Amino acid sequence: MPRYNSVLDAIGNTPLIRLKRASEETGCEIYGKAEFLNPGQSVKDRAGLAIIRDAEDKGLLDPGAIIVEGTAGNTGIGLALVANALGYRTVIVIPETQSEEKKDALRLMGAELIEVPAVPYRNPNNYVKLSGRLAEQLARTHPQGAIWANQFDNVANRDAHVVTTAEEIWHQTAGEVDGFICAVGTGGTLAGTSIGLKRRSGRIKIGIADPMGASLYNYYAHGELKAEGSSITEGIGQGRVTANLEGFTPDFAYQIPDEEALRIVFALVHEEGLCLGGSSGINIAGAIRMAREMGPGHTIVTILCDYGNRYQSKLFNPAFLKEKGLPTPDWIEAKPAEFDIPYE
Ligand code: PMP
């Protein structure tokens, strides 16, 4: 095992884990990149590190400066841990609908958390737009200055995946990867990994797994930014072509209902010991659909974005699932103990 100088060196270089049932059912080899093993426990540590390093390289960050961001949580956690390690502060604007577990993780990191109502992007008080205006204000008033991380339209996010995620996948599969697919929040992971892999080999196919309520499936499949339905997944589901997605076109596009993703998430806990968040379920459902379309014998990689404990109060809470009309596995219901305890 390597020896690191700081936690920052522990970001990236995550293992690939073979997904047994998904592989067996499709006759393909389907692997998930275990991004929940990053220090901030999500794929977004990579973007957090790259965005801060890029701002430093451009001379935009004085010691003690504030990094402001609008985030569903994971990017904020990544930014906060990198900022703490490098001597900056973080102010995070988050829609109040996001999981309490992510908000707690942000508080634990010492980020200043501003919870705001969840409103669509076209509303001037959308969390992303609020964070941009707050950053402008703090840049003028805070003695050490402030920057806006702007993960959606800052391509330092995508570049992180071109140089790290894509290269890692290429080497981990010894160049034998045939397909890559994931969902889109900012598009950094999908577009960046796609650019990096296609640079290595033009024959590698790319897919987008879009949750319901997002517009990109219709955009890439039918040329129209149009959303249908809704999803309980967090951190994904985009309604516009962000700067990170500019110039990107997938070979395959799928729209995945929550039921399909959650059945996979629940089965993985019990059958494979892997407890993942909802976006990983969307990704794996997409990988299975892509494997079926490409046919047996292919190697397909997707992203295991974060861990299930980040959504314990939602995805693994029977009351929440029932309220949303979603499948509720019987093992998460509270049950009387099955075995008698042999007390003396
Ligand atoms: N899954 C989760 C849980 C996330 O938090 C995010 C980031 N918002 C994504 C997937 C999507 O990643 P990206 O922003 O690179 O598209």
Automatic annotation (TrEMBL):
Positions of transmembrane segments: none
Tryptophan synthase beta chain-like PALP domain ranges (all copies): 8-306
Co-factor requirement: pyridoxal 5'-phosphate
UniProt keyword list: Amino-acid biosynthesis, Pyridoxal phosphate, Transferase, Transit peptide
Keyword Amino-acid biosynthesis appears in the UniProt entry: yes
Residue ranges that the Swiss-Prot or TrEMBL entry lists as coiled coil: none
Nucleotide-binding listed as a keyword: no
Pathway(s): Amino-acid biosynthesis
A molecular function GO annotation: transferase activity, transferring alkyl or aryl (other than methyl) groups
Pfam family, one: PALP
GO BP term, example: cysteine biosynthetic process from serine
Protein name from the UniProt record: Cysteine synthase A
Native source species: Aurantimonas aggregata
Upper classification of the organism: Bacteria, Pseudomonadati, Pseudomonadota, Alphaproteobacteria, Hyphomicrobiales
